[in-house]
Design a protein that fits this description.
By secondary structure, the protein is an all-alpha fold. 75% of the residues lie in helices and 0% in strands. The chain contains 13 helices and no strands. It has helices at 2-14, 16-23, 29-50, 64-87, 93-100, 103-113, 121-140, 151-173, 181-203, 213-237, 243-249, 253-265, 271-298. α6 crosses α13 (271-298). It is globular, with a radius of gyration of 19 Å. 54% of the residues are buried.
Length: 299
C-alpha cells in the first residue's frame, strides 16, 4: 500500500506542469496558483464541515504548536506553487520539474546541519556530483520559452520552489504522527490559498477569463488531480516514509513531465543539459538512499 500510494501520487503530480502550461495561457502565475489552491482548499473545508462531531477526535485537533507549524507549512507551500508555476514562464517544463525535484538534497542537508545526522562519504560525493549536474542544467539550457535569455530567472524560481517544498515537508514531519493526513492537508492548503490570494490581489493577477476554457481546464486538473490526489497522497506517505524518501518518488516527475512536454509542446533540452539532469537525478537518488539507510539503522 505505501508504494502504491506514492506511485499514484507521482503520476498525478508528474502531469502538473503540463496542466500549468495550459493554465498559464489564460492567467499569470499568482492567479493560477491562487485559483488552484482555493479550489482544493474549498473542497477539503466543505468535506470537513460535513464530518459529524462524533467522528471528530482529539487526534484531529491540533495543539497551538501544531497550528503554527501547519501555518508555516502552508506559507511554504504557497511559495512553492507561486515560484514553480512562475518558472514555467521562463524555462521549459523539463528543466523546471528537474530543478524542483532537487528537494531531497536540501532536506538531507538540513538533517545534516540542523539535526546533526552525519553524511556518508558516498552522500558527500553525491552532493558534489549533483552540484555539477545543477550547473550543467542551468548553464546549458538555451531553449526557454517564451522569453529567451531569461533561463537563469526560470531556474532560480524553480530552485526556490524546491527549497520551499522541502521546508513544507520538514514542518509537516513534526506533526504527521499526531494528526491525520486530512487535518494536515486541509489546514496547509487553506493557509496556502489565503497567502496566494493576498499575493495575487496585491500583484493584480486574477484568475483566467471565464471563456478561457483551456486555462480553466488546466487549473481544475491541477486542483483535482495534482493537488487533491497527488499532493494529498504524498502527505499520506509521510506516515510511512521520511521527507527525503517522499522526495525520492519525485525523481520520476521530470521524466513524466519532460516526456509529455516533448510530445505535446515540442519542448526539449540540449544533450549536455540533459546529461547534467541525469547527474542531478543520480545524485538525488544516492542522497535519498543513504538517508533512508541511516533512518533504518536508527530504528
Amino acid at each position: 500500500m505505501p508504494y502504491l500510494v506514492l506511485g499514484a501520487a507521482q503520476l498525478a503530480v508528474g502531469a502538473a506542469a503540463i496542466f500549468a502550461r495550459f493554465a498559464l495561457g489564460g492567467a499569470q502565475p499568482l492567479g493560477v496558483a491562487a485559483t488552484r489552491l482555493v479550489i482544493a482548499a474549498a473542497i477539503l473545508l466543505g468535506y470537513a464541515a460535513l464530518v459529524s462531531r462524533r467522528e471528530a477526535t482529539q487526534h484531529e485537533r491540533p495543539t497551538p504548536r501544531a497550528r503554527w507549524l501547519l501555518a508555516g507549512a502552508g506559507v511554504a507551500l504557497a511559495i512553492h506553487f507561486a515560484t514553480w508555476i512562475g518558472s514555467l514562464d521562463y524555462t521549459t517544463v523539463a528543466v523546471s520539474t528537474l530543478l524542483v525535484t532537487s528537494t531531497p538534497i536540501w532536506t538531507a542537508l538540513y538533517d545534516a546541519l540542523v539535526l546533526h545526522r552525519p553524511l556518508s562519504r558516498l552522500a558527500t560525493m553525491a552532493f558534489f556530483v549533483g552540484g555539477i549536474g545543477l550547473l550543467m542544467v542551468v548553464g546549458l539550457d538555451a531553449t526557454a520559452p517564451p522569453f529567451p535569455g531569461h533561463e537563469l530567472l526560470g531556474a532560480g524560481l524553480a530552485l526556490t520552489g524546491s527549497l520551499a517544498i522541502g521546508t513544507y515537508l520538514i514542518l509537516v514531519r513534526e506533526v504527521r504522527d499526531v494528526l491525520s493526513t486530512r487535518t494536515i492537508v486541509t489546514q496547509t492548503y487553506s493557509w496556502a490559498a489565503l497567502v496566494l490570494v493576498l499575493a495575487a490581489l496585491i500583484a493584480r493577477q486574477g484568475p483566467p477569463p471565464l471563456d478561457a476554457t483551456a486555462a480553466w481546464a488546466g487549473i481544475l486538473a491541477m486542483a483535482l488531480i495534482s493537488q487533491l490526489l497527488g499532493h494529498t497522497a504524498l502527505n499520506a506517505g509521510l506516515h510511512w516514509f521520511s521527507p527525503s524518501a517522499i522526495s525520492f518518488a519525485t525523481l520520476l516527475e521530470p521524466v513524466i513531465a519532460g516526456g509529455l512536454a516533448l510530445a505535446i509542446f515540442g519542448e526539449a533540452i540540449p544533450p549536455l543539459a540533459l546529461l547534467g539532469g541525469v547527474l542531478l537525478l543520480a545524485a538525488v537518488g544516492v542522497v535519498v538512499s543513504q538517508e533512508r539507510r541511516l533512518i533504518d539503522n536508527e530504528l
